## 1
Amino acid sequence: MTQFRVCRFSRTRFLIVPIAASLIAVTALLAITARAQADGELLTTNAEIGRAGGGLIVAQRIEPKTLNPVMALDIPSREVIWRMMADLVHINRQSQQTEPALAKAWKISSDGRRYTLTLRRGIRFSDGHPFDADDVVFSFQVYMDAKVGSPQRDLLLPGGKPIVVHKIDPYTVEFQLPQPYGPAERLFDSIAMLPRHILETNYKEGTFPETWQLNSRPEQIVGLGPFRLKEYVPGARVVLERNPYYWKSDRAGERLPYLERITFLFVGTDDAQVMRFQAGETDTINRISPDNYSALVKSQNGKYRLNDLGPGLEYNFIFFNLNDLNQKFPQISGKQAWFRDLNFRRAVSSAIDRPGIVRLVYGGRGTPLWEPVTPGNKLWLNSAVPKPPRNLDHARDLLKNAGFSWAQDGGLLAPGGERVAFSIMVAAGNASRVAMATIIQEDLRGLGIRIDIVPLEFRVMLDRVTQTFEYEAAIMGIASGDVDLNSDVNVWLSTGSTHLWHLHEVHPATAWEAEIDRLAQEQLISTQFKERKQLFDRIQELIADNLPIICLATPNILVAAKANLGNFRPAILEPYTLWNVEEFFWR
Amino acid sequence: MRKSNQLRVAVYALIAVHAVMLLGGFIAPYDYAVQNREYSFVPPTRIHVIDRLGHFHIHPFIYELRYDSPEDIEEGEQVYPLRFLIWGAEYKLAGLLPGRIHLFGVDEPARIFLLGTDQYGRDQLSRLLRGGQISLLAGLMAAAMSIGIGLLFGMVAGYYGRLADEAVMRLAEVFMVLPWLYLLLAVKGFLPLNLGPTRGFLLVTLVIGLVGWARPARLIRGIVLTAKERNYVIAARGFGASDLYIFRRHILPQTMAVVLTQATLLVTTYSLSEMTLSFLGLGVNEPVPSWGNMLASLQQYHVLTSYWWMFAPAFPAILVFWGYYTVANSLQEPTQ
């Protein structure tokens, strides 16, 4: 065809060709510029250029509870929601550094209290409505409103006072902080920008917390993320479709995302997730237990890729009930004398075989822990914290010094003469934590302590830890959301909402808790990394020394994906695999 | 003829299994709770009579296990002969007599795991024997309890009739519709924290036994209803015999056939109930084994697919259930 056409050009026509060509070029250029303006200021990613089309199927253990980004607390909900939402400044899950998102640039004043963010121009929500500074102001208003009760609200109140948000012009927003904020622009990560045009009425009517549920109409749920809601089938799946207005493009200028849709299947158990993946029914798998990972390694056939990303940020620990029980549960409060004794906690810690836990619970794919920061957090880990191996003799000496003794049959006797026995509460559904309890039970038998394991349904357990305080010891885990340790500060602050071992302290109960409070406040207002690192190093030392929680181990982050999935770059920060789903493509 | 053979085999099998379980502590080479953390999920130890050089040994032996990494445990070079009547961990025979002599074993530091080990490196055989004691005892005790209560209530309802009958039978219906699994779930939420394994076991047995009295009670009531109209019973009453005498002398013997069949059926049902509860994590707690909580590890996909020896407790369970059902069948036949 082409050859045939070339032959037909006459001499006279030959002259016209360059003119026409340049005309076309100019028009094309104009068209591209016009399109660029219509498209807005897209962010160009550095990822490998891929091909559009196809869908991704991901299995999830359970359904999301809500689709409201302001109210969502649980991982299954956030996993789905954040494929549909975007934030102003984003923490790159791989580099762990902040990078521009909806804000293309930001300035921080020299006193560290004023942030000026410049928004991308001409970008649109998933329903085509333009996004500007009014939406930003609205979003922060919602997040900080006590009546809405967002779980992220605390983070936006540095020093207990709200951030003041000003619109300077449609594309510039100024944030006035009551005091300097240590983690700086990390503050903006995971604060979803909400569509004012959709949600303002709900907010004013006071129905905001109930909006955007699973049964909401798909066109009502509007965001700035790479995908938007298509359908929800109760008990079966949530399907998201490509957002045609998404604000990122690849290096070739193609608008992302490449994938047409994402399907989240609800499969009930971790094992079912692995079986579905193995059968080729799902494309990626977010969090594989070490045992299942070994099973997958054995049946590896080149169709999928397995990644062991090394230690994540999750730390598992055992802690004792140090709450003020005020005559409630006399049986438990009778034992609190031991629990409050530092020597007793140190003896328990010294008797625990942490490498054994890593071997038996994680099949070696994990790391023993003596402090609440894992080796996965290279920037903030205080590697000087001592890591004493299991030592039963040392544990016995500690107990002897604290006035404990042993009966004829080897059972441990408290200073008051009663036998030392306590229960460990654990979430029945979490096989690895039940296994940790079983190992600790056997370890402490070596000291003559009898342990009863009490497996309870997770919500019942959480209720006992946070509300009724009806427990003696418990094993739990916390997965930090960010490498910056400020994200865990609520665990350390004596007034923190997750200060698990002793909630609602009016004054710090101990001198070291008072010191932690002071250090945590200092790091919050310091803007120097070196200074903040020193402060957090000291906090880690204090925790490892005083053992309000006895850290046990952290599992490696294990993920898998089909081998032909392009741009699959899992990271140790949640959501491990789907954080760059807009760049995913099928080879 | 074939039927009677089957019955004989069943009875022998039952006697054998119960005897083995009763002598569990003696037959088990190790303490059921001791963890050998280097030997997680080790397959059953092979017993050899011919060594690697091809030499024949009269005395059976094993090779020690060499531990390199969690996924690399294999037989080493060192030979350990199998020893009989060896000194070992303390146990209580039939729950009463303390002992330390074990039927077989090997010298330290080698280990013999005839049925492999579980996640924590605990000997499966020792756990299976102890677990059998728990599961079978739970079945027997719960069956005795619910037959006992059923007999009492059934006799009272059948013999005295009217108000007593109405009250007992309506109560029985309430118990029959109770969803016992959920009942136990609810009970679990209110339990004290320091319920030791023994008390936990007794509680499970108690709940299973208490909930199940209604069925035998109804059956016994039916028999008592017909029995009390018999002429010799009426005659005895006419001679001034006391109720207790009539129960003992004339009515109780009539109920025996039903009681025995019910008992054999209930033992299996209740053993299975205990196994189900423990399988779901509601029964006996760690570290005490039961056939149910031993099989519970099969809920994990990797265990199900990788470690076949974890199925071991299912086999004696099947044998016991088959035995009891065969006996129950043959008990029922003459009455039909």
## 2
Amino acid sequence: MTETATGTATGTYLIRGAAILGGDAEDLLIRDGVIAERGTGLSAEGATVIEAPGLVALPGMVDIHTHLREPGREDAETVETGTRAAALGGYTAVHAMANSNPVADTAGVVEQVHSLGRASGWVDVRPVGAVTVGLAGEQLAELGAMADSRAQVRVFSDDGLCVHDPVLMRRALEYVKAFDGVVAQHAQEPRLTAGAQMNEGTVSAVLGLAGWPAVAEESIIARDVLLAQHVGSRLHVCHVSTAGSVEIVRWAKERGINVTAEVTPHHLLLTDELVRSYDPVYKVNPPLRTDADVQALRAGLADGTIDVVGTDHAPHPSEHKECEWAQAAMGMTGLETALSVVQESMIETGLMTWADFARVTSTVPAAIGRVADQGRPLEAGEPANVILVDPAARWTVDPHKMATMGRNSPFAGRELPGAVIATFFKGHPTVLDGKLNTPYRYAADTAGAGSSS
Amino acid sequence: MKHLLSTENLSAANAIRILDTAEEMAAVGDREVKKLPALRGRTVVNLFFEDSTRTRISFEAAAKRLSADVINFAAKGSSVSKGESLKDTAQTLAAMGADAVVIRHWASGAPHRLAATDWIDAAVINAGDGTHEHPTQALLDAFTMRRHWSKLKGSASTGADLTGMRVAIAGDVLHSRVARSNVWLLRTLGAEVTLVAPPTLLPIGVEHWPCKVSYNLDETLEAGVDAIMMLRVQGERMNASFFPSTREYSRRWGFDDARLRALDELGLKDTIIMHPGPMNRGLEISSAAADSPRSTVLAQVRNGVSVRMAALYLLLSGDTREAATTPGTARSDKESN
């Protein structure tokens, strides 16, 4: 593939015999950035044919929770490297968290990240705006300016830090209603987690590492769902990690509170038993929990209590992990392993179908982020954000072969199922044969027009 | 045994082997020339990221009595305080040809990192890491208890374990690496352990530990103990609301003069009082208790040198017979690679 797509004038691709959302095999004709036809026995003059028997066709994945590190920590990741990783992982959109340096708390910074995303062209980069100035938890950032900017921010989060002041959280929840925004809360009561190193429980007791109790997450979620109910706002809970959190979100939804919740792939598969190695690759915030929590999270994702999978992709330079546990940075990479981990934990366990997978990795995260042209059905006339997955593939995770600059994958050495064979972003193949192809190129005159060009 | 990182996975055979070797080492300490040529030409580095004069000089004395060359590397006033990483420090020591690294670190798990990575190939001895473990302290405590227990039973220490001995460990269990190492080792050696502490100073999950837990020191004494070990309590814990005041702590959980008298009244004439030091006299232990004939505080210090000689000798002498015949769990195997 040597062509470079420009604007909406992309090539023509005929995908033959892919199981649509894991269902019956059908053909998809992609032309001019949209799905032109869906059916059987399709043909098209001059189309590049992709034989896809055995592959599953899904809507491009939308990550509601990604750390791209740029601006400020380009030694950890850049928008370019992070979005390459995203495309390889089956994503066509990522929400870039606000904890960059400078913090994404002004229209200028979110527009910069947005522009970097468009220049890279691997996925749609949707900047998340900080809730408070400098993530300091003291004063609201200019949320409206970020919403009105070219980045059209709809998701606001101090992720990495909790908006723990209840009045500030209430105001933020209320204020974002003016532009249909959502506050994505990193639920962590700071006083209960001062110096916390890992899940507080039987393992932390033996290892002598300061505990991060489940109640520190659950008490904030309980407070926030009640606040969201009181002011009639939309709340998103980042990286839910405990069985108790699942119960609280389930209770809130039963009461009709407008709350959505997210779980990371690593919390669906890994437990705090791994910390016994003291290897900081397992250090993450919120921490890995117990097997009972893992099972509750899986059940919650399967029954819809938890709405979406968000990677919390958090690359770090190796020197931040090659040290004592207490000195190490928190976080794990996730963009290139998310699909496989969710397949292993949710689909191969029989808890979910590929159609469910599309719901939790694409349809609902796009809806939460108000990304209009993503997470759409695979039907004629829809934007061609499509991925092809080989569910029978098995591969061994090698962080050194990844596109992300982060080598901190907790799945290193682990054999996982499922591989992304192709990613179509706006009708253009960013990934083909499981390898990076070329980025999508926006037409110059649409540079300021948001994501729907 | 390639490393000594924790007592959690130390087999009974290896624990008793260390204690028996320590008995032989103790005999050296009674001789006019307190020195063996066993580790001549070997280099032992005391790598201390946290102040601890007592443990450092104990290891230093142990290494020197075995004729090893000793290098003391304290984090303060070294490149470590200028931001050098543990990895760089370890690689530097490896390049200098260290055969064993005795590491004291404020971060739990730091010795495991040294042992598990390829930063350095030397034997690693954990001289206390964060609030995790302090295995040589537990071994010297067990050595002290075993001598006492064997004497009471009129049998030899060598080869014996602690079956049937009732040991109470009282104080700040939550922040104590000594308590953790003792719980695992005493369990392995067959003793019955009771932890006594305010609920705020016990870790979540302690109910799964192989011991009993009590909030009441008097009831524990009344039930009968053969050794009572008092843990150091830092007065600053009061400021974090672990307990209301040092006076209240002393009254409820300190080994004061009244409790010293109670041992006599309860007929517990052979019960010993232990403390890993340094003591807060008047807080967790009264001066009368610390200085009473029941106190083993100085014997513990003395035995510490013997036990550390044994550990250094067994790790560096290349004698791995018994380790090969007593494989530990999968995890301890991994740790020793």
